[in-house]
Amino acid sequence: MQSVPSESSKTRARIKALLLIVFIAGAVVLIRYSPLRAYLTPDGLSGVMATAGGWAPVVYVVIYAVGICLFIPGTLLTGIGAAIFGPFWGFVWVWIGAMIGSVGGFFIGRTLGRDFAASLIGDRLSRYDAAIARNGFATVLYLRLIYFPFTPMNFGMGLTRVRFADYFAGTGLGIVVGTFIFTFFIGTLKTVWVSGNWAALISPKVFFSIGLFVFSFFIPVIIKSFRDRHP
Predict the structure, then answer these.
(1) Residue spans of beta strands (DSSP E) within the chain
(2) Residue 138: how many CB atoms within 10 A of its CB?
(3) What does the entry list under GO cellular component (predicted)?
């Protein structure tokens, strides 16, 4: 028999949920209306990386991870990273930053919002919550592959019963393809731009990067079609 939460535990859950709402609202206000916004551009972040010297990758990973938790669009941060570090290292640092940021968002959501979310789940929704717990890895992997909004999913998964190991593994594997394609595309174009060798725009490498980028938009359709045929 499921125990009935005490009034004090319900109150604590409501307070934590309120803190989560305040955190999210504060993050949005901070990014949109504070001077920090000026640094969230290729030039601004490149200047920060230049002053960081050899610590630039570490600084970038920290900025990416914190930025994800503050609802800065991951696409923006990924594009800037690819432009600064190039296709290969851009992919490495973006993936690491995204993983740390996704873990941060997950634990913020779980710590502040899970108890309140659980108190709202009725018999009908509890079946879905239990299903996510049983099939956590597959669920997370599928949602990452179809490009479900990154940051909302980080916080949202923290509200469910999904196991952290399943969430971590599903995220790590699920974002590899999209991250590689996007960083390779941006990094390759940036290399051509900086070199000034415009003839390189018709090189196989550029065509390959453009092909991968276009293909990435069809990944959700391919995944959905495969899932419909193999339920």
Answers:
(1) none
(2) 13
(3) plasma membrane
